[in-house]
Amino acid sequence: MISKYFTAMLMPVLTAFTLPVFAQNTGITEHEGGGAYPLIVNDAAHPCITQQQYEMIEKRVAQNIRLLKPDTRQKKTTTTLFSWPLRPAAGLADCSYYYIGNYVDEDPTSPGIKDYNCGAVTYDGHRGTDICTAPYPFLKMDNNQVEAIAAAPGTIVDKQEGHFDKNCAFNTDTANYIIIQHADGSCALYWHFKKNSVTTKLIGQTVGLGEYLGVCGSSGSSTAPHLHFEVWASILSSSLRDPWAGTCNSLGGATWWAAQKPYTEPAVIKAQVNNILAVLPTCPATETPNEDSCFAAGSTAKFFFFLRNETIGDTVHERIVNPGGSTFTSWTHNSITSYLASYWYFNKVLPVIPGVYTYETIYNGITCSKNFVVECGLLGEPAITSQEQVMVYPNPVTNIVTIAVNDIEPGIYKLSLNNIVGQEVLTDKVQADHNSFQKDFSLASMPAGIYFLSIESDKTRMVRKIIKD
Ligand SMILES: [Zn+2]
What we know:
2 domains; 3 helices; mainly beta; Glucose Permease (Domain IIA); six-stranded mixed sheet; Immunoglobulin-like; elongated; single chain; eight-stranded antiparallel sheet; binds zinc ion
């Protein structure tokens, strides 16, 4: 259960930024933190389903099928082909939501392990495919964000509901689960559901392809929310099949998938931008992503990405994209270790020009993006009242705009005006001999639209929105 359970769950609090990173730098940047995502994989001593539970399931399924009228046992006239047994719930906008924690163990010896691809993504005696939700699996569970669905149509031949669903360690609890028998007599087991999420359909009722079955949870012997998906050729546990076709599949050979996914799927699962660190507490507390979409101009933000199948030697390319599409800054992350799931975060100084920016991550040819706003208030709010330190009037303006700045320290101030895509269209310097200055700009020749005025000294920066009619 906890064999691959990676150490401290609470992300380290940064005590020092050893690599101050400034805007417009391009190149390789050391990450500020990260590593293996706190994993959730059961192990040999702590199987997803115990031997006693297998015996219980067999008895229940056999009895349920006897009781069903008419007899739902069907002739093996068709071949069962599976679609993917999970889907993101409506509203989950992440780039992906899962990784595979364990395949079926094809090695009959103990403690030997071997998955269908002759790799070691399994544990001794494992009989299913563990599809883990990520990142934030408990948050996803709380919010019903990842649903198990029928990978193939069939009849419900067993289900249980109402069991505790926030397990973090091996136990002998019964899981919330459902077993579907297909037209060819084979069965699929869907295990570890969230409490009270299992479909209200009854044993004996049919489910269609893709029909909702339950929410990914951590009921039964489980260390965090995941789906254990197991295939039998009949109603006997001894008829176990491995649905993945590969060199080391000795349990049936041909694929059961309508479209078998590759053995690994390196990808960015989620990109996010934060003012403060995300919190990954110890199981079973719900995680706190602390994801933000609004940031102060010129502040330092934390750029997170979460990976599936990070592979040693690979490179993740990241950049902050200006409102107009050009690159504000870019950097890379070079993988020196392989992980089933991992995360990294970087501190970056944000642009000073208000606008909608994009955090873009590219891994394995796939782009995962997240938009964020510098100076939300300026983008959303009307400008300037007369009591402020900076007065801009008239605003909106058609011709001459006056900028009056009060209560400042004497010194040199740089004034710059940027358009909505971040291009600098005007710039000037003002020497403030006292605690204020005033400056006029002509915007007569400028196109109508939104502009941002930046007033900057070596000690301060103020930004105001100007609307040109
Ligand atoms: Zn499992």
